[in-house]
Amino acid sequence: FRSKQWYQRRVAITAGAFGGLLSCGLTHTAVVPLDLVKCRIQVDPDKYKSLGNGFKVSVKEGGAKSLTLGWAPTLVGYSMQGVGKFGFYEAFKILYSNILGEENAYLYRTSMYLAASASAEFFADIFLCPMESVKVRIQTTPGWSTTLREGAPRIMKEEGIRGFYKGLVPLWSRQIPYTMMKFACFEKTVEFLYKYVVPKPRSDCSKSEQLVVTFVAGYIAGVFCAIVSHPADSIVSKLNASEGGSVVSAAKELGMAGMWKGLGPRIIMIGTLTALQWFIYDSVKVAFRLPRPPPPEMPESLKRKLAAQS
Prior knowledge:
Elements: H1 2-30, H2 32-43, H3 51-62, H4 71-100, H5 102-107, H6 109-140, H7 148-159, H8 162-165, H9 168-197, H10 207-240, H11 247-259, H12 263-287, H13 300-309
Helix pairs in contact: 1-4, 1-12, 2-3, 2-10, 4-6, 6-7, 6-9, 9-10, 10-11, 10-12
């Protein structure tokens, strides 16, 4: 029994990592044009005044092809991050569930989701940070290198390894709250939808119907993710756009109002991204014959205890 359980957990973690690779890498690469304009609005709001204006100015200066700048570091970086984010989330969820025990894992499941997702994102961002540094520099620095194969060696030559990781702390500040909201809000929204919105039990829903619930819950979670992480995202963009500088100096230069520039396009981008990521992730689990487990139910032992107390 233990060997079977160990095998099932290992498959779940592997499927999570593979699903994360596909869901994060593909979706972030698909919205590179929107991400490029968002970063430029954050770094130079006087020139790129709005989403529409940002697209117009970018195309006028560099042509339509310029909207794909940074696609390679985006694909590589977010694919690696997806492996860490989803794979480690499954691993930490199993770990913390075992530590808490069945009853406490149910009672404190939201706290467990938050802890598992924060732990996973801590390591996932270490994978992402070098590529994020190259991506932002490509997208926001006029006259700089325009490809990953030119940009990465250039940063190493000019700034050393610090150039790749100087944005790690603000990246953690952006991504850890983002991921905590992404997983905890998603899990609770799925519970809510099956309990109050979907007119039949999850077990009676087809796989396609379950994936629709996944998409809706993912989009709702994505909106909240964008809001809680946006100030830190602006600091990351500002910090990676130039050599030198610090988190404090970037925050001072942006100001409180500047930290919220580009929120509109980011809500659109992150809402869509998060919904698609969860959709792709759950689709991969279905393909592995590991569909998302049903919403958590109270363990029988806890039901007996509560019945005895009443």
